[in-house]
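Repro:
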Amino acid sequence: MTRPAYMIVSIDVHDSDAFGRYAVQVAPLIQEYGGEVLAATHNYRIEHGAWPRQRVALIRFPSLAQAEGFYHAPAYQPMKSLRESASEADLLLAESPQDQSPEAPEDGATPHYLLGATTVTSSDWIEEYMQKVPPISAHFGVQGLAMGSEYSVLEGAWPRDGLVLLRFPSEAVFQAFWYGDEYRAMKELREANTVADHISFAGVVE
């Protein structure tokens, strides 16, 4: 069964006019390869640690092959050069751990995402965490879009060993999960055994 892939772009733009031309040019090609821009924003919130870039973008492709096909397509290369002339970026490609279709937002709510870079400093806690967190996540409707160390760095760098990308039905649900009582003990356990940087952002294109 084909699993979707996520292209994660963390970017600094220093020529907004040129980057605007890039955004217009690349949109049809992304669609040609089945891609969907889930988010593109500078309005992210640092939830833990730090983040090195001004903006973040998230693009979903139906498969890893289609994502790679887009990135290496001859038609994309002049667009890529234009983007590189206007910005500096860290670009990752990660395959979802399972076939997963995005759930429809509740009552028209905008999905919210958590993106994290993580290095594990001890493994003693992982079994307990993996037993207790899935039921909590299910209660809040959290989708694990990508996680672990199985990702490709296409450009730039990634600050930690691991990656986590989660989707929440809305910002309100994210806040209730991330700062609520149900997840608190496991969050503290994870934070005590990892070095991590996390940001959250809405599923908007701006």
